[in-house]
């Protein structure tokens, strides 16, 4: 809302002036702005990416909604977020800027990331930006059990604000346990499965039937590799079957060459195919 004060320039009074001269002189009026206008607020929200620049005028948010958005922005910035973060937050979690959203709802998660995870303010910011949906997770029933389970497995440095860690923290314990169960089913002991996953925590993000099992079966039945080789190189599961594993396996097989998994998969294409022409 724009509140302005119109100030007339004062002039000395002169007798016998016409009635028209009793009004303010023709000098340009002076205005003092006390509050930012609704239009300027809309422009600010557009610059942050919260409002699409192509939004038609009749679909723009009301002053009430805009003020609520500004309050939410102030709250999040007070917790360490930057202007450059809001476009991603608005895209992935538009409910953050809904009129019914109360910033106090996400306070427990922000506190959890500092106190339980022991992340710094800057690390917390990175985790939130990488996985904004974590803000709406239940601390007691979701985040704390997951953190405890991962730590028991030996997964370290979960406070590092990587995309992997952010999504890992927001993964339910039930899904983590299913992955451990799969590792047990292919022949690993509980201790080996725990160590395997701590060395390759990204494994928790892969689908068991459509990814892990298919890669394991290709390793054993097509490549003729042993479980021991997999234990030595758990990162095997992180490579694409169709784009990396299969092409390189068949390339080597045609040349009757057998090398270790890590050497087969870690080398760049140029180095690999130059070596094994």
UniProtKB/TrEMBL annotation:
UniProt GO MF annotations: nucleic acid binding
Entry's Gene Ontology BP terms: DNA-templated transcription termination
Keyword presence, Transit peptide: yes
InterPro entries: MTERF, MTERF_sf
Keyword entries, A-Z: Transcription, Transcription regulation, Transcription termination, Transit peptide
Pfam families, alphabetized: mTERF (PF02536)
Signal peptide: none
Domain of life where this protein originates: Eukaryota
Protein name: Transcription termination factor MTEF1, chloroplastic
